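WARN no homologs supplied; continuing
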Amino acid sequence: MVLEIKSTEQFREIVNGDNPVIVDFTASWCGPCKSIAPIYNKLGMQYEQFVIAVKIDVDTHEDIAAECEVTAMPTFVVFFKGVMTDLVMRGANESGLEQLFKDAKALTETS
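OK structure emitted
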C-alpha cells in the first residue's frame, strides 16, 4: 500500500522510523508519474513487509521537495532511519524502480 503524505510532520515521523521508506515525488500534471504509478503501487504492496512506500505531491509540499533537492518528476528517494540515502532514481523506469525496492529491502538485512 502506498501512503499519501499530507503534512511535513507526517513525513518526518515516517522517515524517522526503523523501516526503509521509498518516497515517490510526483505531480498531478506529470505524465511519466501517472504511467509509473501502477508499478509503484504494485511494488509497494509486494514489499510492504520490508519497505514503506509513500507519495508526495511536489506542488503541495514544495518544502520537502526542495529539502530533498528534487528537480524532476518522478523522483524516487530512499530514506533509512531518518537519513536520505544515496539510493535515488529519477524517471519512470520500471526495472530501475524494482531494483530500488530490492536495494531498500537490503538495508534491513545489513543493519
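The chain has a mean pLDDT of 96.
OK
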